[in-house]
Design brief:
Strand content of chain B: 25-35%
Helix content of chain A: 40-55%
Strand content of chain A: 15-25%
Structural class of chain A: alpha+beta
Distance between the termini of chain B: 91 Å
Number of strands of chain B: 43
Shape of chain B: elongated
Strand order of the largest sheet of chain B: 29-32-33-39-38-37-36
Helix content of chain B: 25-40%
Shape of chain A: elongated
Largest interface: A-B, 106 and 122 residues
Order of helices and strands of chain A: HHHHHEEHEHEEHEEEHEHHH
Number of helices of chain A: 12
Strand order of the largest sheet of chain A: 1-4-5-9-8-7-6
Oligomer: heterodimer
Chain lengths: ~350, ~800
């Protein structure tokens, strides 16, 4: 028995000694076969256990198995080191002169994402009417996203925007969030500029919303704001009808209905006739014949006043458009999730 | 909210068809999301049961003869225990589609012999008609149902499914919707009747009400009904509740729900005998106070900012949210204490959120109900309880009203109305619209009108609120459309936005733009960023992520582009080039994160041949660099590429891009281990640019320099240098000569004819002078000066 124990130790010592000398990956494999392979020295020893007594089997088996594990670990360590060495040699040999010029590219066809294309067409329509682009942060304070828009804490209208909150607490509250709409930048711009104001705010927004064919948790909006003397609802209607005409064509009908957003009064939703049934009424349009494309309204006088302007003198309108919705209608896409799946077979259609 | 039209018709005549009413409501702000029409029930008519005979061969079955109005008298076999001669029932002829009472599947009724007798049709149960799960007996119709009439005329009700806005709590009631229908169809509405007999005992002798926290409870009205009998509410009420989406429970509870749906005021019924101390105290919960709520089997601990309704001993209900189990109405209840109160909206909302209990009551209270509603709703419920539960009402109401307020008057200038709408509306029209909505108006000064707001319109406070009323009843579609005029504001330059859009234009002309998600999972970030960077700059974390996949704000675009690349390879060798511009979020202490406009591009696949087919050569560093060079060239950016190291890139094939002395980006071949982590088993090259850092290096408007009228001379130069000398360094040295108009590298060679550790570089140099024509000799002289310079600075030797 003692001689057998001896032989486990001997094999292990020999194996480790040989391993030291292994300098290449193929030599390492030879080493593995000769000690740990099916006919390797340690394997053979383990096999011979079958002929021994139970006691011998127990103690020797334990020892041999432990040695086997140690050798396997040593093997892996050595293999990793050799891999690294080989790779660094390759790198050394194949490292390139990064200052050499790029190779000539074939004339490749590039494309903008359909959301970018739609966004740009919308922005072009607005900028031609004197609106200027003003972007704002995507991570916002509750103050800008809600409170200054007349949506205080515990206001039921908060349910209209399911919110993704940042894991950051101050004074027992979570004051930071992913903006749920581009509206906070209305306030930021009003704080910085004086009327007349005409801006559009393009950008990403985020909602705590399960995704399905018509809902995405990440979305893109354009917010619009116009403040001046003598701006009325008829101007809001005129501006939005003109943009709808440019985006969807002159033969689309546009309708307006009363709606509610805490930061506007009166509030207004804009619909176009359903692109599937052309106003007859179908499942897509909830049998109304109309599809809502944006929310809008006259800027609430309390908001104008809070920015230090006289609400009797200055009036204005604001609107928010979801670009994905517009793109769905425009291209006849049946599922909003296509946009951020970025499948080239989809993207290359636009 | 679900509003059955037959219920609506109690308060207003429906003079138009449902579709037109829905259209007008939707335009006026009550979105009718769906019009639920009764099932078709083709072939099912009202029948009169003329006789019921036993089945000759079966004890439990009977043979009914029914009159179906067209002269026929079919014999129908029926197993229902409740069938009797003289009933009006729903008869289905052969071939009718019905729901099978046993399997629940839709089946077509076929001719069948049951125990040797043929059944000519069927008398239906509620389950077979899809009305409910009831299959014990047949549906018995009202006695006045007309024989032969389609069942849908007798049973069916059209229901509006409304998507309501939170500013109009009054719309969360059938009466509120009726008022709108009235105004939109030019007629009045009928308020529900409150009249009922009262007993001798006074309500205030039954119970006292004390409001301790008047900031959270502006009014508490109590009513008492004695000697009532708990049982089922009448069928008509049950049907209305079911149609409106509520489950009938017992007559008392059903009446409280019915009145809530009818008038919008939530009510609560306590078993009076279980109100300890015969008193009601409205107060904030005591610290640690516990309460067993209705519908729950475990006590809840209440927070001390929650308002409770307590009796003489402790809390019995959470105000405006849910009643307690201990004071629940049971079949044994004989006397009811009915609560109709007004609680502070924000408090109810906060409490219901904290308890995670959104109830029909809390959904109404949180929107801010009228303080004038409680006594009206209480009286209405008392009337129904007296009539339907056989009770006696105590005299009067107990009414604690610390938040008493007068009626609100809102002045509206006609000029202001015209300015906001952009339309002149004559005062008479304004008055008539407002009065159709329940406002009283009077002219104050010449240009001004005062509107007295009806009690249910808690939302109308300012003149613009009144102006909206005028606009929406006129109809927004009726307002004219005009284009904006006036001064166009001075432009405020947005250089960062402009740069990003230029970058998209340039790259989008030959690469595919993608837009990926801004949030990421920690594993993806860990694949592309070294652990120490994640430890020093931990990414922004969401408190309530939709899933772990979208938990962190990304601090890099790398993983997004690699994931998108992987998803698009699909085993094809085609060369794919993708890019994205987006913001990454770098957290800052106690502040919004720094949002950095960033660019990332990835290139992978085999380069196309002359026919556009993939060749054997895999695109790598220099193909990615070509994309970036094109971008920088168009932007007029001078970028220097310096060999560098980075976690995500393969050493030896990585460069930082430097403008001035600022690193603006990185480029390289993605380390194969990392590519493999993303499932990409081939070469991927990537570039990243911080657009904010790049911005100051973008060229402004180009300056003209005169074109030299003299011809140029081209000469080639090959030099042998140590392998580590970058070609770019030599180009810099060559271009530093004023006589050099242009220089480019066109060959690199290592191999047999070059000593080990050396390489040969070939340059084409264009010489041109502003002052005269250069000869080949002049050029050669300059070329020699260049060689001297290269020999001195980079130890170069001209190649023979």
């Amino acid at each position: 028995m003692s001689s057998d124990t001896e032989s486990v130790k001997t094999i292990e010592a020999a194996a480790l000694r040989d391993l030291q000398a292994v300098a290449k990956l193929d030599a390492l494999e030879e080493w593995r076969v000769s000690y740990l392979g099916r006919k390797g020295r340690l394997t053979m020893l383990l096999r011979s256990l079958a002929d021994m007594s139970i006691d011998q089997r127990r103690s020797l088996g334990k020892e041999a198995n432990e040695a086997k594990q140690r050798l396997e670990t040593a093997h892996d360590t050595r293999r990793d080191a050799l891999e690294r060495k080989r790779l660094s040699e390759v790198i050394e040999r194949e490292s390139i002169d990064v200052t050499l010029p790029g190779s000539t590219l074939p004339l490749m066809r590039g494309r903008m994402h359909p959301i970018t294309q739609t966004m740009r067409d919308m922005l072009a329509a607005f900028t031609s009417m004197g609106f200027q682009v003003a972007e704002g942060p995507e991570v916002e304070w509750d103050t800008y996203n809600f409170e200054k828009l007349r949506i205080p804490q515990d206001h039921p209208a908060r349910d209209m925007w399911d919110t993704l909150w940042i894991d950051y607490e101050k004074d027992g509250r979570r004051p930071m969030l992913l903006r749920t709409h581009t509206s906070p930048n209305q306030i930021r711009v009003m704080e910085q500029r004086k009327p007349p104001i005409r801006i559009v705010v393009p950008g990403k927004c985020y909602r705590f919303e399960a995704t399905d064919a018509t809902h995405e948790w990440q979305l893109t909006q354009i917010e619009g704001l116009a403040i001046d003397e003598g701006i009325g609802m008829t101007h809001l209607k005129g501006t939005l009808a003109e943009v709808a005409r440019r985006i969807f064509g002159a033969d689309r009908r546009v309708s307006f209905r009363c709606s509610y957003y805490p930061f506007v009064e009166p509030g207004m939703d804009v619909n176009i006739d359903c692109f599937i049934c052309r106003g007859e009424g179908c499942r897509t349009c909830h049998y109304s014949g109309w599809i809502e494309i944006l929310g809008s309204g006259m800027v609430h006088p309390e908001i104008i006043e809070a920015q230090g302007y006289d609400p009797e003198r200055y009036t204005g309108f604001a609107f928010g458009v979801g670009i994905e919705r517009i793109a769905l209608l425009r291209y006849g896409v049946d599922d909003i999730r296509h946009f951020y799946a970025n499948d080239l077979r989809f993207l290359r259609q636009f | 909210m679900l509003v059955p039209l037959s219920w609506l018709a109690d308060y207003v005549d429906l003079t138009l068809d449902p579709k037109e009413i829905a259209r007008r409501l939707t335009i006026a702000g009550i979105e009718v999301e769906d019009i639920i029409t009764p099932a078709e029930w083709d072939g099912i008519v009202v029948a009169h049961v003329e006789s019921v005979e036993p089945h000759p061969n079966a004890d439990r079955l009977r043979l009914a003869t029914v009159d179906i109005g067209n002269g026929e008298r079919p014999h129908v076999i029926c197993g229902a225990p409740n069938i009797a001669a003289g009933q009006k029932v729903a008869y289905a002829s052969l071939g009718t589609k019905l729901i099978d009472g046993h399997t629940g599947e839709v089946t077509v009724l076929k001719k069948a012999k049951i125990r040797g007798v043929e059944s000519q049709g069927m008398i239906c149960s509620e389950k077979e008609l899809g009305l409910s799960g009831e299959h014990e007996g047949i549906l018995v119709l009202p006695e006045d149902a007309k024989v032969g009439a389609p069942l849908s005329q007798v049973m069916g009700d059209t229901i509006f499914d409304l998507d309501l806005t939170p500013n109009r709590p009054d719309w969360f009631s059938v009466l509120g919707v009726a008022r709108e229908v009235a105004a939109l169809t030019g007629q009045g509405w009928r308020d529900p009747s409150l009249e009922h007999p009262e007993g001798k005992k006074k309500a205030r002798d039954f119970v006292t009400v004390e409001i301790e926290d008047a900031d959270l409870c502006t009014r508490y009205v109590g009513a008492v009904i004695e000697n009532l009998t708990i049982g089922d509410s009448p069928k008509w009420m049950q049907k209305r509740l079911v149609d409106a989406g509520l489950r009938p429970i017992n007559n008392v509870v059903d009446i409280t729900n019915y009145v809530m749906l009818e008038m919008g005021q939530p009510l609560h019924a306590f078993d009076y005998e279980k109100v300890r101390g015969k008193k009601i105290v409205v107060r904030r919960a005591r610290k640690g106070e516990r309460l067993l709520l209705l519908t729950e089997d475990k006590e809840r601990e209440l927070a001390d900012d929650m308002l409770v309704i307590a009796d003489g001993e402790g809390a019995t209900a959470v105000a405006g949210v849910m009643g307690g189990g201990d004071s629940e109405v049971t079949p044994a209840t004989r006397t009811i204490l009915l609560e109709a109160a007004n609680f502070k909206a924000t408090s109810v909302r906060r409490t219901s959120h904290a308890l995670k209990l959104r109830t029909d009551a809390s959904a109404r209270f949180e929107k801010g109900l009228s303080r004038h509603l409680p006594p009206l709703a209480a009286s209405r419920a008392v009337k129904l309880m007296v009539e339907l539960c056989g009770g006696t009402a105590a005299e009067g109401l107990v009414d604690a009203f610390p938040g008493r307020e007068g009626e609100r008057e809102v002045p509206v200038r006609m000029g202001r109305l015209a300015a906001v709408l952009g339309l002149d509306v004559p005062p008479e029209q304004v008055t008539s619209i407002l009065s159709s909505l329940g406002f009283e108006t009077r002219m104050a000064e010449q240009d001004s009108l005062v509107a007295r707001v009806p009690y249910w319109r808690t939302d109308v406070v300012l003149d613009v609120d009144v102006i909206e009323e005028v606009a929406r009843i006129i109809g927004y579609d009726q307002l004219p459309t005009t284009q904006l005029r006036g001064q166009i504001p001075t432009d405020v330059p947005q250089p960062m936005t402009a740069l990003r859009e230029r970058v998209k234009n340039i790259l989008g002309s030959f690469m595919q733009e993608v837009i990926t998600y801004s949030m990421s999972d920690p594993e993806s970030l860990r694949k592309v960023l070294p652990p120490e960077e994640l430890a020093i700059n931990p990414p922004l974390k969401l408190a309530n992520p939709l899933s772990r996949q979208w938990e962190y704000g990304r601090t890099t675009l790398r993983h997004s582009l690699l994931q998108t690349m992987e998803a698009n390879i699909r085993g094809s060798p085609e060369l794919l080039t993708l890019f994205e511009t987006a913001r990454v979020y770098l957290p800052r202490e106690d502040d919004l994160p720094h949002e950095v406009e960033s660019l990332c591009g990835v290139v992978s696949g085999r380069q196309p041949d002359r026919w556009g087919l993939p060749t054997g050569a895999e695109a790598g560093f220099f193909e990615a660099k070509a994309c970036l060079e094109r971008l920088f060239d168009e932007l007029g950016v001078e970028g220097e590429y310096r060999a560098s190291h980075d976690f995500v890139y393969l050493p030896g094939r990585t460069a930082e891009i430097v403008c001035g002395e600022t690193q603006v980006g990185l480029i390289g071949e993605v380390h194969p281990h990392i590519a493999s982590d993303f499932g990409i088993e081939r070469s991927v090259a990537m570039f990243e640019v911080n657009l904010e850092a790049l911005l100051p290096h973008v060229a402004g408007i180009a300056r003209y320099t005169p074109v030299s009228p003299y011809p140029s001379v081209e000469q080639d130069l090959a030099v042998i240098v140590n392998t580590e000398v970058p070609a770019g360094r030599i180009l810099q040295l060559i271009r530093a000569f004023p006589i050099v108009a242009e220089a480019m590298v066109f060959d690199v060679y290592t191999g047999d004819q070059i000593p080990a550790g050396k390489k040969s570089l070939a340059f084409r140099i264009t010489f041109q002078s502003k002052d005269g024509t250069l000869t080949e000799e002049d050029a050669s002289k300059q070329r020699n000066r260049i060689i001297e310079r290269l020999r001195r600075d980079v130890n170069a030797e001209p190649r023979a």
